[in-house]
């Protein structure tokens, strides 16, 4: 704030990724904004039960938010709800753990603050909406989100054609280090052979073919989740802690 | 940076919740300029708290003895248990004088993003307390925020099959507030927690 009290304001759409307590009644809120990527800002007084902002700057909420620029952290000035996904997610434990893993992964994929990532923002909003409405099994929504967000980050896995030479598949062998399915000539010394139905499920999750995904069998879902988690950890430097607590 | 012990003090103060580097520095210099008698009183309070205060072996509340004052009190209703996140929530509820049952302190809320799962809370201890069948109702009084809500969801799913009456504090709409100003989380919960009116 300058001496005349003029504060630079800006406004954006955002999803709340994380909140941390600050002092007596404030929170530091991490947002993924539509235009400016990840933003950390102080929300003042939101832990008081009388706060009108409180329930709007909770994880999973999609909001229209006005910030003013602060010296170290920006400050949340006004918030209006766009998508109130919080209660729909928190009222089901499977949805909550899947949703939290999405938020943490989003944070990991946006390490540089202020770097726009519109595609990731849109993916996240779509996934939270589906999760809150119970459109598909929470673990399927999570895995679809993880695979697509990795693709957006430039690490698109291949579950059909050979990830190395492009030879049309499906192929039997699979290695995370090579980026997915591999044809016999490209196959490295160590490779796994997931069930063909698991690879078909993974391809369906990546492309958004929900008819295939929704009708998949539990054992293939489990194998697909394991591969997705391993693929995610391979590309992210730090562990996604909440993945361990996801109910499958 | 300051010399040795002064910087050590600033670093230690800076680790306290809600104390930033600036505040830590301010508190450190306040202490340096204070009457040594006052500072010694603070030191002895800190020492006593670390040496004497423990956690109640039954409910997890802070206590000077193995059993806390509330768990020892025979007049409290043993059939109703109120589950809270922190010892300070017990203090807040006690102040209302509305509740005459006993408590169970979880030690936090389920927060996967902070690495806190159900196994990190005193949930196993809660189930142990239910074993003798004396408790008939559980009031889930976790915080009215998202983590508190998710923790209540988890506990309700765990406890309902045991044939207990599980209730959640009907939280809500701030007294004196206008409906239009309520946020969606609060308003949504107020609807869920609505009670039947006798006419
Ligand atoms: Zn190949
Ligand atoms: Zn006790």
Question: Helices, strands, pairings?
Answer:
The complex is a heterodimer of chains A (248) and B (199).
Chain A (H helix, E strand, L loop, with lengths): L8 E14 L3 E8 L3 E7 L17 E8 L5 E11 L1 H5 L2 H17 L8 H16 L4 H15 L20 E3 L4 E3 L13 H12 L2 H5 L3 H18 L13
Parallel strand pairs in A: 3-5
Antiparallel strand pairs in A: 1-2, 1-4, 2-3, 4-5, 6-7
Helix pairs in contact in A: 2-3, 2-4, 3-4, 4-5, 4-7, 5-7
Chain B lengths: L3 H11 L6 H13 L2 H17 L1 E2 L6 E2 L5 H4 L7 E5 L2 H10 L5 E4 L17 H8 L6 E4 L5 H14 L5 E4 L15 H9 L7
Parallel strand pairs in B: 3-4, 3-5, 5-6
Antiparallel strand pairs in B: 1-2
The structure holds zinc ion (2 copies).
Write the CATH homologous superfamily of the largest domain in chain A.
Recombination protein O, C-terminal domain
The chain pair forming the largest interface, with residue counts per chain, is:
A-B, 35 and 28 residues
Task: Kindly provide the name of the CATH class of the largest domain in chain B.
Answer: Alpha Beta
Number of separate structural domains of chain A: 2
Mean pLDDT of chain A: 92
CA-to-CA gap between the ends of chain B?
69 Å
Overall mean pLDDT of chain B: 86
CATH topology of the largest domain in chain A: de novo design (two linked rop proteins)
CATH topology of the largest domain in chain B: Dna Topoisomerase Vi A Subunit, Chain: A, domain 2
- The proportion of strand residues of chain B reads 5-15%
Your description of this structure?
Chain A folds into 2 domains: 9-84, Nucleic acid-binding proteins (OB fold (Dihydrolipoamide Acetyltransferase, E2P)), CATH 2.40.50; 92-245, Recombination protein O, C-terminal domain (de novo design (two linked rop proteins)). Chain A has 7 helices and 7 strands. Chain A has helices at residues 86-90, 93-109, 118-133, 138-152, 196-207, 210-214, 218-235, and strands at residues 9-22, 26-33, 37-43, 61-68, 74-84, 173-175, 180-182. In chain B, the strands form 2 sheets. Chain B has a 4-stranded parallel sheet with strand order 4-3-5-6. The termini of chain B are far apart. Chain B folds into 2 domains: 4-52, Helicase, Ruva Protein, domain 3 (Orthogonal Bundle); 74-168, Dna Topoisomerase Vi A Subunit, Chain: A, domain 2 (3-Layer(aba) Sandwich). Chain B has 8 helices and 6 strands.
């Amino acid at each position: 704030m300058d001496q005349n009290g003029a504060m630079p304001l800006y406004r954006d759409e955002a999803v709340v990724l994380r909140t941390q307590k600050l002092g007596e009644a404030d929170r530091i809120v991490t947002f993924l904004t539509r235009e400016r990527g990840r933003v950390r800002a102080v929300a003042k007084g939101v832990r008081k039960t009388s706060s009108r902002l409180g329930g709007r700057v909770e994880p999973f909420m999609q909001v229209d938010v006005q910030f003013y620029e602060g010296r170290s952290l920006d400050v949340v000035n006004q918030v209006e709800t766009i998508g109130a996904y919080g209660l729909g997610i928190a009222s089901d434990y499977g949805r909550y753990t899947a949703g939290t893993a999405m938020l943490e992964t989003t944070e990991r994929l946006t390490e540089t603050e202020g770097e726009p990532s519109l595609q990731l923002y849109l993916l996240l909003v779509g996934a939270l909406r589906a999760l809150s409405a119970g459109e598909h099994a929470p673990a399927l929504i999570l895995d679809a989100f993880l695979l697509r967000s990795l693709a957006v980050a430039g690490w698109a896995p291949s579950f059909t054609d050979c990830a190395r030479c492009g030879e049309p598949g499906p192929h039997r062998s699979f290695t995370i280090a090579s980026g997915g399915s591999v044809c016999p000539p490209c196959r490295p010394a160590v490779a796994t052979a997931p069930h063909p139905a698991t690879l078909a499920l993974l391809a369906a999750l990546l492309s958004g073919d929900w008819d295939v995904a929704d009708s998949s069998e539990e054992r293939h879902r489990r194998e697909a989740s394991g591969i997705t988690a391993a693929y995610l950890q391979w590309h992210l430097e730090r562990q996604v802690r909440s993945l361990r607590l996801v109910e499958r | 940076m300051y010399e040795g012990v002064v910087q050590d003090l600033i670093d230690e103060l800076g680790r306290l919740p809600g104390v930033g580097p600036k505040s830590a520095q301010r508190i450190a210099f306040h202490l340096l300029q204070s009457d040594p008698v006052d500072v010694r009183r603070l030191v002895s309070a800190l020492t006593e708290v670390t040496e004497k205060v423990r956690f109640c072996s039954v409910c997890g509340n802070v206590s000077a003895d193995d059993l806390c004052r509330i768990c020892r009190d025979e007049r409290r209703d043993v059939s109703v248990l109120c589950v809270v996140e922190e010892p300070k929530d017990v203090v807040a509820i006690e102040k209302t004088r509305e509740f005459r049952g006993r408590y169970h302190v979880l030690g936090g809320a389920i927060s996967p993003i902070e690495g806190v799962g159900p196994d990190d809370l005193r949930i196993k201890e809660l189930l142990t307390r239910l074993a003798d069948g004396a408790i008939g109702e559980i009031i889930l009084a976790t915080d009215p925020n998202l983590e508190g809500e998710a923790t209540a969801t988890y506990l309700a799913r765990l406890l309902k099959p045991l044939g207990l009456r599980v209730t959640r504090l009907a939280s809500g709409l701030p007294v004196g507030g206008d409906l239009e100003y309520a946020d969606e989380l609060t308003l949504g919960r107020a609807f869920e927690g609505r009670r039947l009116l006798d006419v």
